[in-house]
Amino acid sequence: MNLFLASLLAAILFAASSTPAASLRVVAATNDLGAIARAVGGDAIELDVVARPDRDPHSLPVLPSTMRATARADMYLEIGLSLDLWSREIIRGSRNRKLTVVDCSRVITPLEVPVGRVDASQGDVHPEGNPHYWLDPANAVLVAELLAREFAAIDAERATDYEARMTAFRAEIGRRLPEWSERLRGRRFVEFHRSWVYLAARFEMEIAGRVEPLPGIPPSAHHLADLASMIRETNVPIAIRDAYHDPSAMEFLARETGVSTAVLPTSCGEPTPESFLAHFDEIAAVLGAPAAEARP
Questions:
Q1: Does 126 lie in the same domain as 30?
Q2: How far apart are alpha carbons 157 and 20 in whole angstroms?
Q3: Domain holding 89: CATH number?
Q4: Structure confidence at residue 101 (pLDDT)
Q5: Rounded to an integer, what distance in angstroms lies between the CA atom of residue 19 and that of residue 38?
Q6: What is the distance between the alpha carbons of residues 88 and 93, in angstroms, rounded to a whole number?
Q7: Dist CA 31 CA 29 (whole Å)
Q8: Element (H or E) spanning 102, and its range?
Q9: What residues have CB less than 8 Å from 88, skipping those under 6 apart?
Q10: Domain finish residue from 155, 176, 197
């Protein structure tokens, strides 16, 4: 058993012996926020997640079941930075006046904040900055610290337990960062959407190009030809996309340049701390691998 799991187990056992049975009911916009919430809350929270990892978080249909879950919830966790605007529809539709809404972006320093006027000609640009901040593990620690405070504000009896779990999660991130850094530092890649800037900034990576010429705008043939030329001339080893992105552009780049391609999710597979950490292991394995080892 590794240090993280041992620490979490100790925190959960302590919580089970010292706190009341009633749970804090939490709805998280995505698996990643849900995973961090679970890392902090453990079995003391009941958790529902809205957006699954195979769905584009920029555009999501709102289901009545989600509104019903939010109507019963104590807390809703938003991504913020104008990514999950559908969360506002869910919150309004729940008619839950006692709901605590936590914008998890408020504790991070946004990257790529536009200067000057923002309009549709720039594509799907977020006026408050790039919203994919959970792809920096250090930002996950900031969100965990925020949630420990927010959970304790509603459920003061478990404040010590939330703090203990958060501390264990923070320590495990710190333990794994050097390994992730060793694998990822200095690597170059092409991304489909403007999703990976926080990861690149954390690990001093280079995003050599993007399939989308502007966020949310499909590539033209001319743009893909230019991108292919750049990949050939500078020997970019890999291009990545999410499962919900059109694969045809990546297929063209692979055919024209021989570049390795991979489907690399921007979200973890399950709303658990183990899945959140394993997601960065997967990222390090894919982007840190020699080109010949990248997954098709």
A1: yes
A2: 8
A3: 3.40.50.1980
A4: 98
A5: 17
A6: 8
A7: 7
A8: strand 100-103
A9: none
A10: 176
Give the residue with greater pLDDT, 10 vs 45: 45
Residue length, the chain?
296
The strand pairing partners of 166, in sequence order, are none
Q: Domain check: are 8 and 69 in the same one?
A: yes
Between 114 and 250, the more confident residue is: 250
Q: How many domains are contained in the chain?
A: 2
List pLDDT tens digits, range 79-104: 999 999 999 999 999 999 999 999 99
Residue from 208, 244, 214, 205 nearest 229 by CA: 208
Residue with tokens 């050599």: 208
3-class DSSP assignment, residue 213: coil
On whether both 121 and 244 belong to a single domain, the answer is no
- pTM over 0.85? The answer is yes
Helices (H), 110-186: 137-154, 159-184
Token pair for residue 179?
Answer: 């390994």
pLDDT of residue 296: 40
Q: Count CA within 13 A, CB hemisphere, residue 186.
A: 3
Please give the full DSSP string across 214-278, using - where no structure is assigned. STTPPPPHHHHHHHHHHHHHHT--EEEE-TTS-THHHHHHHHHH--EEEE--SS-SSSSHHHHHH
Residue 217 CB coordination number (10 Å): 13
Mark which of 145, 176, 207 sits at the end of a domain.
176
C-alpha distance from residue 243 to each of 56, 193, 197, 210, 264 (Å): 9, 12, 19, 16, 8
pLDDT of residue 45: 97
**Which of helix, strand or coil describes residue 188?**
strand
Domain that holds residue 73: 3-176
Question: Tokens 């504000």 sit at which residue?
Answer: 153
